[in-house]
Amino acid sequence: MPGPFTIAIDGPAAAGKGTISRAVAAHFGFAHLDTGLLYRAVGARMLLGQDPAEAALGLTAEDMETGDLRSPEVAQAASRVAVMPEVRDALVDFQRSFARRAGGAVLDGRDIGTVICPRAEAKLFVTASAEVRARRRYEELVASGADVSPEQVLADVRERDARDRDRATAPLKPAADAIEIDTSDMSVEAAVAAAIEAISKRRLG
Q1: Sheet holding 105-109: strands in order across?
Q2: For the segment 20-52, what is each residue's pLDDT rounded down to a tens digit?
Q3: Domains of the chain, CATH where assigned
Q4: Selection from 51, 24, 27, 56 nearest residue 39 by Cα
């Protein structure tokens, strides 16, 4: 089995990093971790009344598989707990251990290339305009039966962007050596192809 090779994929909400990360992991045969689910699971526990730091310390795999972690309420709660240093500290070791597993790993989130895995062999920053991301999220929510307006979703996206970008701990920003992929005008297939090409070049060194 090949040794560790870490691919860090960061970016704002609904930019397409999750879709790209899953496709990249499948292409290279690597394990994949959506680190946002960790924060969503903590946020969901917080909404049930649990202390966020305690929730982070006691998080289990089952917590990431139960409940509606994709709901707008949980997304906003995840963004709120993600600014808490004690929550982030509690989840760092889990993420770093996953990243260095034998056989390779893909992690996507907000601070993988800058904080969690600053020495990752390959780093991508996947982005898109707020308007495009809000449209994508709106379509997802409507398809799932949510009662939301396009204006509300755009406002939520901008609010979350500001919270992620301006937080004191691990703010959302591209790593200095990350390759940026703007998916605003790209098809899923084109975005995935661009990511695979960029990572393949890093693997070949």
Answers
A1: 31-34, 105-109, 6-10, 122-127, 179-182
A2: 999 999 999 999 999 989 999 999 999 999 999
A3: 6-200 (3.40.50.300)
A4: 56
